[in-house]
Amino acid sequence: MCCARDKDVLTGVASNLQASDKKFEIASNMQSVDEKSGISYEDEEDEMERDLAEDAVWKRIQQNTFTRWANEHLKSINKVINNLETDLSDGLKLIGLIEVLSGKKLPRHNKKTCFRSQKLENVSVALKFLEEDEGIKIVNIDSTDIVDCKLKLILGLIWTLILHYSISMPMWEGEDADLVLGSKGGPSPKQRLLGWIQSKVPDIPINNFTSDWNDGRAMGALVDAVAPGLCPDWPEWSPNNALQNASEAMGLANDWLNVPQLIRPEEMVNPKVDELSMMTYLSQYPNAKLQPGAPLHPRVNPNRVRCYGPGIEPAGVVCGAPTSFTVETFSAGKGDVQVFIENPIGHLEPVEVTFNNDRSRTYTVTYTAKMEGLHKVKVLFTGKEVPKSPYIVKVEGTAGDFKKVTASGPGLDPTGVMVGRPTYFDVFTKDAGKGQVEVIILDQLGNRNTTLYRLVKISEYVYRCEYVAQNIGVHSINVFFAGQQIPKSPFGVRVSPVADSRRIRAYGRGLQSNGVRVKELADFKVSTADTGEGDLDVKVIGPGGVKEKIEVKKVDETTYECIYKPMKEGRYIITISYGGQEIPRSPFEVNVGPHKESKIRAYGPGLKGGVVGLPAIFTVETNGETGSLGFAIEGPCQAKIDCQDNGDGSADICYLPTAPGQYAVHILCDNEDIPKSPYIAEILPKADFFPERVKAYGPGLEKNGVIQGQCTDFTIDARKAGNPSSLDVSVMDENYKSVDVKIQDNKDGTYKCTYCPTSKNKHTVQVNFAGSAISNSPFRVYVSEPTDSSKVKVFGPGVEKGVKAQIPTHFNVDAQGCGKGDLQILLTDEKGKQVPVQIQDNEDETYTVDYVSPTPGTYKVTVMFAGEEIPNSPIKVNIQPRVDVSKIKVDGLESN
């Protein structure tokens, strides 16, 4: 690109860390070439005037990209820039952005800006911090330029931040920091990034950050190079489909590599694409990590085709009613789908195959059986049968009466369904006769495969459809029985965006999953403090989908009390919405039944004491027992209670004392105190220490990764907590047995804690400072068994007698009970040449290994688990010729 020039400053600014003072500088020499950044500046006056035009394409792209880059970082503090030209003028969002990037708090500044002088002061604080604290030298920009909304200078400032915090730091794991921070003779940020891309994509000549990306193929090649198998079809892409190519590649990167689209596909394929914008976007790839569950797939593989739906179920299809099933080919590559349906007398039935042109590359197959009996459904992909084909379908009976089928549930309500939140509805088929239930959900654009759903039979006449809408807008939910839409179908459901409902709390006995009994009042409260105006909507659905009565009354301005009375045993679903949006943990599931005694365990610093103004925390565990829990605090003042369900049978209880003295902490089970309740907690006056500033980190506090029988450690940093005070650290296993903890004082305000778990499963680590829990305490650590490669078992036809050359085979690896570890398989022939193998993780600690031996001979199978070779490895496999010559007989060669 041609960087715009101005007598005051450059629009597109580039620089590099200097070897001497490691500072950035916005270049002011308009006639030179910045060798370190690799970005040149045009000398021609007409070129300058063209690029400085207000509507210059590259300039608009640059402004858009820089705005998206800033907003990606501002997400963490809930701020957003709508107009880069004006939104930084008061300095507040600029300060917020710099604090996020640097990880440091800026000096005191004006939180509210009513006057120009206050805005100038804020921007000055930001620029001074960048120069003095971060070592970024800024030339020809002062606070008036930002306050006066000079876009060219603002773009130059943002580019300096991008260079310093995103591009000029080490961009990939293992990169030599000396090269990054090196002398003037070292590579520039542009050269380093371009060199990395060229090393990843040697098959495409990439020499710049503009025109070489216009047809989208380079983008597909880069995505597949970073995550092999994520975009394997890019070599077949046509350069004429540039926008489609770029959209597919960038969409995959966004979904599975966590690479936000700082530049849009239509901007990338524009001939006037901005070079700095492309560098900003592409600098995310060196550290991109593939997310679990990514749809990696080879070029073409019929074994990866998945078929599902009522039309291939062994039973349920009836005569005269249309039925269907889905063929998903995403993981199999691109190819044609053919379907043949053979009736009991051997004739082929008519079948309709429709390509849905969706992301999963699915086909919808529809047919109508005309006679009873066994039907064969054969599915072919690229001319080869897919796994489990042919499907045997037993057609029995005739279609029932679709008019007698009903459906209800929160997932069919016109409002209340949230994007990304699970919901459901039930279909009732009693007295309707025989027929299959089918559900088709169309989003606001009419796409049928954007909504994730599953249909399960929960009783003889009841089917449940659970779904998660992925898009906002009105969805059409179509419910079929025996090929016909049931009454009231299709149902129109408006899917709303997820609101920030973190401040809304619902708590009480009536929301406990267990403990509520038939004909007893079940109550709970909803607190809407500091959430703004909105209508509260509470629904209770009882067994069989019956809507139950519930009384909702307003206790005060921000608290509602809700009471319902269950009359039947079974499962009740409670949906709570505020302002048209569901609150956290809604819908609640309550199992109403007979009372059961509970043994409840309570522990934590909040049961012993705390400090005024700081949260006092303790934990309650049910140990798998049922019961309705309640909490009450009695003391010198009212203490607000907050209950956080951990989802593992435990809950963290937090109350905030506001006056010193003794507090009685009541822990109730079915309105009765548990043993040892109430606990007496001594609350001390506020002192000059801050437990909330204590931080703890390290492998010993990670949720996963701790191994049974192996010592682990973590660090406690109390340097910002004020005057030294008491430190209390404890570790308990799942049976509440204490685990010894060794605490080493490093004499600098930090402590090293070491413990050795002797049992597996959940452990609880509590860190208390001055009698109060520190941030994120208690920590829950799940201890796993140590790896033992000697227990790994290998079996199957691929390691036994009878394997033949050029014929696909497989064997199985069973690593259940062997701990966590990576599996490695090496197959070599007699000459030591490696033969490719395909390892499929079955996600149950077992694996399936497929291979094809090219020639006969003795092969070796080497199996490594967790870095160690298993017993009996390597395994010798004798590969036989594909044709057995000894069994060939020749007749007719008699002497006469």
TrEMBL record:
Which is one Pfam family of this protein? Filamin
Domain Calponin-homology (CH) residue range list: 60-166, 187-290
Q: Record's InterPro entries?
A: Actinin_actin-bd_CS, CH_dom, CH_dom_sf, Filamin, Filamin/ABP280_repeat-like, Filamin/ABP280_rpt, Ig-like_fold, Ig_E-set
Task: Indicate yes or no for the key word Nucleus.
Answer: no
Q: Which CDD domains match?
A: CH_dFLNA-like_rpt1, CH_dFLNA-like_rpt2
Q: Which Gene3D superfamilies does UniProt cross-reference here?
A: Calponin-like domain (1.10.418.10), Immunoglobulins (2.60.40.10)
UniProt keywords (A-Z) are: Actin-binding, Repeat
Give the source's domain of life in one word.
Eukaryota
Q: In which ranges do the Filamin repeats occur?
A: 297-395, 397-495, 496-592, 592-683, 686-783, 784-879
Family per similarity comment: Belongs to the filamin family.
The molecule here is called Filamin-A-like isoform X4
Supply the source organism for this entry. Answer: Limulus polyphemus (Atlantic horseshoe crab)
